[in-house]
Amino acid sequence: MWPNKFDYARAGSVDEALSLISEDGKYLAGGHSLLPVMKLRLDAPGQLVDIGRIPELQGISANGGLTIGAGTTHDAIATSADVQAMCAALASACGQVGDQGVRNFGTLGGNIAHADPASDPPTVLVACGATVNIRGADGSRSVAAQDFFVDLFETALEDGELITSVSLPNCSDCQCAYVKFPHPASRYAIVGVAVCLKMDGGTCAQADVAVGGATVKAVKCAGAEAALAGTTVDEAAVNAAAEAVKADIADWLAGDIAYPESYRQQMAGVYLKRAIAAAQG
């Protein structure tokens, strides 16, 4: 199926992109999220503003923490030595997005703007306390990743706003991992879990946990975090966290005929255990 007709413009800067976007327009970066839904006519923007060649949206900066341009590809993030050192879970998640072709062209900004609940990066961004940096006609603002993802394919972006970058704290002193149960055909996450454990003398000083895939958005899991914090992350603590995570995601569950909500909820506990094991190395 072919998409409906639309106008096309290419922007050379963020300011130009903001000036070009129309009321029924959409920004186009890698196109691996937007173009398929346009072909299925699930979305029919009247205009596309191409932001894929804007230099200020490209690249990775490591200065105390990470700042990743919204136009940076998944492959560039997955293979970045800085990302691998400062947030290995994000490098892992971006390395599991789609296939190599998708990773070569798909961008972090486009991925999170699309907010597919079965995608990989949002779960890590929520777990690791990332911030999404946004520009619009009224200026710039920053939104915590936990608040950026609102619901199924819904974000905090207002009409005409553009993601410029994503900022993450330096997690190099933490034990972090992302693991997922991939759909055998699409490789999307049936369940994806990200953990970040800050250890202090053998005790978990802080635990951050998020679940995606099983839920309509990436969900921060306070109950699982509380079950791990202050422990040595021993078997009892991990089992308690695996039970708590099921309650954490109960209000946000998603499912289908092949993998219903109840199944995904149970698997969230299983994959939390696997994520902790991977983080502990």
Radius of gyration (Å) = 19 Å
Question: Which structural category do the helix and sheet elements fall into?
Answer: alpha+beta
Q: How are the strands ordered across the major sheet?
A: 4-5-10-6-7
Q: Ranges with pLDDT <50 over ≥5 residues?
A: none
* Portion in strands: 25-35%
Number of strands: 14
Q: Could you tell me the mean pLDDT?
A: 96
Please estimate the helix content: 25-40%
User: How many structural domains?
Assistant: 3
Major beta-sheet overview? 5 strands, antiparallel
CATH class of the largest domain: Alpha Beta
Question: What does it look like?
Answer:
The chain is an alpha+beta fold and 281 residues long. The chain has 3 domains: 7-50, Uridine Diphospho-n-acetylenolpyruvylglucosamine Reductase, domain 2, CATH 3.30.43.10; 59-168, 2-Layer Sandwich (Uridine Diphospho-n-acetylenolpyruvylglucosamine Reductase, domain 3); 175-280, Enolase-like, domain 1. It is 34% helix and 27% strand. It contains 12 helices and 14 strands. The protein has helices spanning 14-20, 34-39, 74-78, 81-86, 88-94, 100-105, 108-114, 121-127, 145-148, 222-228, 235-248, 261-280; strands at 7-10, 25-28, 47-50, 60-63, 65-69, 131-136, 139-144, 149-151, 154-155, 162-168, 175-182, 189-200, 203-212, 219-220. Strands 4-5-10-6-7 form a 5-stranded antiparallel β-sheet. A 4-stranded antiparallel β-sheet has the order 11-12-13-14, sandwiched between helices. A hairpin with a 6-residue loop joins β13 and β14. α10 packs antiparallel against α11 and α11 (235-248) runs antiparallel to α12. The longest helix has 20 residues, at 261-280. The mean pLDDT is 96.
